[in-house]
Amino acid sequence: MQFQWYPGHMTKARRQMEEDIKLIDLVIELVDARIPLSSRNPDIDKLAGNKARLILMNKADLADSKATALWKAYFQKLGYFVAEADSRNKGNMKAISQVITEACREKTERDKRRGIKNRPVRAMIVGIPNVGKSTFINTYAGRACAKTGNKPGVTKGKQWIRLNRQVELLDTPGILWPRFEDQQVGLHLALIGSIKDEILNIDELSLELIGILKDAYPGTLALRYQADEQQEAVGVLAQTAKNRGCIKKGGELDFSKAAALILDEFRGGRLGKISLEFPR
Fold first, then answer.
1. Is the pTM of this model over 0.90?
2. Contacts for 212-217 with beta carbons within 8 Å, 24 or more apart?
3. Can you give the pLDDT at residue 5?
4. Pair 82, 160 in one domain
5. For 196, which DSSP code?
6. From the CA atom positions of the chain, what is the Rg in Å?
7. Distance (Å, rounded) from C-alpha 225 to C-alpha 223?
8. What's the number of domains the chain is made of?
9. Of the residues 59, 114, 187, 255, which has the fewest C-beta atoms closer than 10 A?
10. What pLDDT does residue 275 have?
11. Pairing mode, strands 167-171 and 159-162
């Protein structure tokens, strides 16, 4: 499979971010904790320049906690501030606020020396499509101030949001980059739903996921779908279709329905806490 998705509005959004970065103290980059490296847009480093940086590993509740700990140490070693998040859970927002404060401490102290007091930190939140930016903002702010959706491309334009007395946040649309040099990155993005399903072959995508799970998390498919993991991926898919009643008229197995089921249950965390990549 070849993976690529770069609609025209992303070019416009990138240009706007280049302008807005001049107003920003902190860049908060949301990544998906299941694929922390693949979900990092390489253009962000160029855009951010010398701004303070925070990598927020979102959807940590869906990821393998051992892998998440390794990734956190990996990014900290590179000099980033790092925090974990479940964007739907308000309980971990206090810890994130503390990391934001620490990331902007130098800027705050510089303002104090200049006699500037109580100026809120201006942060830009960036990330790929469907990584959970809007949900995170709404949970952090305690109100619905950003439009959300479980598919990529919901946020189309920028919007300033006052989170509290300390932080003003500039929300931005999710952007990918024009070409995936490594198609494994494209595969990972497709699996978590950051590329529109409508342009993908869902049957093939599910077979790729089955192969990954058989190798990295043996027993997961057997437990969830009573499928024999010793067989090829297509056999697992067929057995899943049979066991889950994915049957067309005439008794033919509905592979597409079973493929969509497996993908949906992976994305929703119903297959367990799973990470698709680990630090090398």
1. no
2. 212/276, 213/266, 213/271, 213/274, 216/274, 216/276, 217/271, 217/272, 217/274
3. 56
4. yes
5. -
6. 20
7. 6
8. 2
9. 114
10. 98
11. antiparallel
Q: Residues 268-277: pLDDT tens digits?
A: 999 999 999 9
**Amino acid residing at 99:** V
Tell me the average pLDDT of the chain: 85
What are the tens digits of pLDDT across the range 69-79? 999 999 999 99
What confidence score (pLDDT) does residue 95 get?
86
Task: Check which CATH number belongs to the domain holding 157 and give it.
Answer: 3.40.50.300
Tokens of 85: 């998040």
Q: Which two tokens stand for residue 196?
A: 């529109």
Note whether residue 183 is domain-resident. no
pLDDT tens for 10-23 read 667 777 777 788 88
Secondary structure of residue 175 in the 3-state scheme: coil
Residue 178 token pair: 């024009």
Element (H, E) at 169: strand 167-171
Question: Would 49 be classed as within a structural domain?
Answer: yes
Among candidate residues 21, 95, 23, the one with its CA nearest the CA of residue 57: 95
Domain assignment of residue 205, given as a range: 201-267
Say yes or no: 121 and 257 in one domain.
no
pLDDT of residue 146: 52
Same domain, 55 and 153: yes
Q: Are residue 166 and residue 209 in the same domain, yes or no?
A: no
- The DSSP H or E segment spanning 233 is helix 233-243
Q: Are strands 121-127 and 167-171 parallel, antiparallel or unpaired?
A: parallel
Best CA proximity match to 136, nearest among 29, 217, 256, 211: 29
User: In sequence order, which ranges of 56-154 are alpha helices (DSSP H)?
Assistant: 65-77, 93-103, 105-113, 133-141
Position 93 in a domain: yes
Whole-number pLDDT of residue 185 = 87
Quote the CA–CA distance of 10 and 150 in Å, as a whole number. 18
